[in-house]
Amino acid sequence: MIPVISKLPQTGTTIFTTMSALAAEVGAINLSQGFPDYESSPELIELVTKAMKDGYNQYAPMPGLMSLREQIAIKTEKLYGAVYNPDTEITVTAGATQAIFTAISALIHPNDEVIIFEPAYDCYAPAIKLMGGVVKSLELDPPNYRIAWDMVKRLINNKTRMIILNSPHNPTATILSKEDIDELSALVKHQDILILSDEVYEHLVYDGVQHHSMARYPELQQRSVIVASFGKTYHATGWKVGYCLAPAYLMQEFRKIHQFLVFSVNAPMQHAIAEYLKDENTYLGLPDFFQQKRDYFREGLKNSRFKILPCAGSYFQSVSYSAISDEKDSDLAIRLTKEFGVAAIPVSAFYRKATDNHVLRFCFAKRQETLDKAVERLIKV
Length: 381
Fold this sequence. Notes:
Belongs to the class-I pyridoxal-phosphate-dependent aminotransferase family. It is built from 15 helices and 13 strands.
């Protein structure tokens, strides 16, 4: 064997792959990985089929199909009052994770410090490390997982290059408030700090509350790279189509990396999504759709011994099992899968130090009969 020095020596297989594989192996209900178990819109699938039959099967333009970028610009202005130039400020990506990696690759240099909030989606820290950056993490505590902005201020120094935000948040299902935006704005106002805003669950905000996108606030918009996902929005995670919004000076650097990482994204799907986006009801109706699932799942869990934590957005529900067991969350997640037939994600997997607050995460983007079967098993725990 030829010696290889790993660039990520402490990194193994993601917890999502591990738990989904275990669920498949033992025939458990998979509420671990974040994907729906129902089909996306038949109309959208027909539009993809039509695009293929119409011959749109070769490379799309590197930044994405112009008709799709134009629809993204229209959608963003409708929702947030923000104007993005589809020619220079919007890029279609092969999913949100690629967009996040590309943004970090383009903007983070060796010894740049990046602030993340843990529990954090697991792609942030590895990408920062691969670019030679330094991860500065701030741990958030259950049940509310609020950001302590005075602690963020203490982390900032002349090496701080970026703050990564995720709202609605995976895995905690929290959302940024207007107070958070005000604190953030004041914190970065006189600093050369970029923001990478992971907003893949932008349409999954509940109880009539507003999503505080970075695009909504001009002073933040001009320093922000915003990442979104059509896979999450349109129940088609396997399509791996997302997009990135950024002011032209940042997007120019983003595209320098994007063109060599994937070059371009699935052409017929871009044609289909561009057409589908023309009907704003395809995304405006999502909060009610998912809130019904959230409420249904939470109501069922009331009959269990799990403590239901707040869920203001995303399609994840976290629970505390402190009243059930003292075992590690990773051990309980495995036992829950094998003995009770329901797979969950241990939230310690979202902390670099594997901080264990005895919390599990379930995905409720499932059919009602799937949730019924899962709840029936979980109330036996």
